[in-house]
Amino acid sequence: MSQTAPARSPETRRRLARPLFIGNEIYRRSNFGQKHPLSVPRVPATIDLCRAMGWLPDNAYIESAAASPAEIVRFHAPEYLQALRRGERSNELTAEERERYNLGRLENPIHDTMYSRPATSAGAVLAGAEMLGSVDSGVVYSPAGGTHHGRPDRASGFCYFNDLALGMLRLKDLGFTRILYLDFDAHHGDGVQDAFAGDPGVFTLSIHEERRWPFTGGEDDCEGGTACNIPVPRGLRDSEFDLIIDEIVMPIGRRYGAEVLVLQCGADALADDPLSRMELSNGAIWRAVARVSGLAPRMLVTGGGGYNPWSVARCWSGVWATLNEIRIPDVPTDAAQSVLRGLEWNRAGGKNPPSHWFDSIADLPGNGAVRAPVQALVERIHETHVKN
Description:
- Strands 2-1-3-8-7-4-5-6 form an eight-stranded parallel beta sheet, sandwiched between helices.
- The protein contains 13 helices and eight strands.
- It is an alpha/beta fold and 388 residues long.
């Protein structure tokens, strides 16, 4: 049963003393298979890099527990959950189960943490929601979260559970009635949008590459006024992303007046990522994180897509620095450079990586003026969602 978050007098107002980082060691041993895009050390590399930079003290780090089956079935079908558990135990599922739950294919393979890994990321997001439910302001960061494609009864797009939907349902159960969901992933956040379509207590806004899987999130897809989709053309530049944040995201966010901001920081919109054709630098993501952090007193930040281990670790560690208002230096520490030099990637880009993947946290800034199609897109969406 939902309960209303109690009002607090100024004397009893509480805030998290500092941003909190939620992680788990399961991501060091979880493996989707040699050829799977997610079989790169994204979360461990982010944790190690943050520590090597001196940004992650022990009192800011929390080891998350896995979500319980009772918590998972708040959104997911019990029989689907059981299929995942069987697949993890036996490394096999029947042909009927594979077809029914979209499992055992290249996209969503059967592997030995196919239940426990997503249950752990769900547990982290749920823990973050609980923390924010007990304070008036604060920031929680779970880079392992952000599985925005997961469906109630099947896997989709590398996402076995939808930890974001579970976390946002928990926030609603805690009494929050205005949740703003922002999605920076190169792929449309279809699973989250569909989970809350038509719900006036949740507004979803997704910036993603047009004509890219899952081929949803068109400009006219508004879900009765509870969603805004910004499908951008290939080659999105920093200046164009900045414009979208300033002209669309910020006005919508200010008008909505959210109690909680849930931000999915997928890193696959970066120029060095192999699964999109967007051209952002990580600096554009960090500027956006800094800008939107004022849209709500509570902020739950997750990772998402991102398939180049160097670009993901550097981006997500910079997100953590941004949330802590830490200036990112031009040159990483020797320990941080060692972390970056220790990464491996079995794609062509990993065979001869450029030097800036090792000797800088920040990407070179993206260049180029705003192109006419992006300007026109911003003007149309501004007319539809900001003026009206």
